Each structure stands twice: as structure tokens, then as C-alpha cells.
Amino acid sequence: SEEEINDIQNQIVILKELHDWQNITRIYGLICEGKDWFWVSEWAKYGNLREYYTNYKDRFDVRLKLRMSLDIARGLNFLRTVEILHHDIRAENILITLHETAKLANFKSCHSLFTTTLNQNQNLERVRYCAPELLEMAHNFKYDYNCEIYSFGILLWEIAEERTPYEQYNDIVKITDLVRNQK
């Protein structure tokens, strides 16, 4: 669709600026098979951050948690210097490489939090990391760097606890109410 093509073009522009930064997943190209587009990216031997802490608990000690947290902070700091907001900081969008380096991935999330192109599960996962201001759904509120930092803070909690934020809840409305009322 035209929307998908625009999304891909937007990602290419962003990824050109991010190509050689050590805490950003490298993208080598784009291939098309039929109607489907696939990114060819740097290999993430250990998958995403949530897969890592679930499957490698014995290796995920305090030292490694701190190192990976610093990796993520460096990636976010770099994005800030090139004036790019990720919009979707969460464990599934942090990939872990062969040398256990944490790298930011998935730069296509420039959609509104509650856009109709996202399914219920995608919205649920994203809302777990959203700043309270964003969940207020005020018409004049603009996603900014403070929202990124809030998401990073929730991600740090997840790294420390090795648990999904609000894992006991599978209802967007319940999580939204909890976050908004804890300000």
C-alpha cells in the first residue's frame, strides 16, 4: 500500500543518519518478496531484551544489566543529538548482539499510540511504557524527549526486575488508569 511505502521511505531516511552508531542496529538493505518487504539487518544472536532475560537468566547479572542499560542510554543519547525520537522504547525493540551489546531497533513506530493500524496486542505492549501525559490523550500534547525518558525509566525497571511492566494486567484501560493515577 502507499502507506507502507511511505513508512519504508521514512525509515530509510532515519536509518541513513543512524548507520554507524554502535548502539543502533545496523540495517544493510531491504528486500521484497511478493508484496512483503523485509529489512536485512545486523544479526541479533540473542534476540530482543525480553527474550534475553527470559532465556539467559544465569548470565543476566547486575554487571550485565548495568552495561546493557548504558548501551541503551548511549543509543538514546545519540538519537537526541541527531534530533530523532524513537517513539517506541520497550524491551522488544532492544536487540542483543553476539557480544551482548544492547542496540535500539525498530524505527518505524511514528504512528499515534491508538492508531487503527495497530492491533490490540501491539497497543497493549506500547501502553506499558507510555508516559502519563501521553495517556491523557490531550489534543495539544506532543510526544517529546520527556516521553522517551519515561519509557526508558520503565525499561530500566524491567531490566532490574526481569519482568514485563504491568504484566498482571492485559487491559489497556486498566494500565492507563494505573499510570495516570500514579503521577
UniProtKB/TrEMBL annotation:
<feature type="domain" description="Protein kinase">
    <location>
        <begin position="1"/>
        <end position="183"/>
    </location>
</feature>
<dbReference type="InterPro" id="IPR001245">
    <property type="entry name" value="Ser-Thr/Tyr_kinase_cat_dom"/>
</dbReference>
<dbReference type="Pfam" id="PF07714">
    <property type="entry name" value="PK_Tyr_Ser-Thr"/>
</dbReference>
<dbReference type="InterPro" id="IPR053215">
    <property type="entry name" value="TKL_Ser/Thr_kinase"/>
</dbReference>
<keyword id="KW-0808">Transferase</keyword>
<keyword id="KW-0418">Kinase</keyword>
<dbReference type="GO" id="GO:0005524">
    <property type="term" value="F:ATP binding"/>
</dbReference>
<dbReference type="InterPro" id="IPR008266">
    <property type="entry name" value="Tyr_kinase_AS"/>
</dbReference>
<dbReference type="InterPro" id="IPR011009">
    <property type="entry name" value="Kinase-like_dom_sf"/>
</dbReference>
<dbReference type="InterPro" id="IPR000719">
    <property type="entry name" value="Prot_kinase_dom"/>
</dbReference>
<protein>
    <submittedName>
        <fullName>Kinase-like protein</fullName>
    </submittedName>
</protein>
<dbReference type="GO" id="GO:0004672">
    <property type="term" value="F:protein kinase activity"/>
</dbReference>
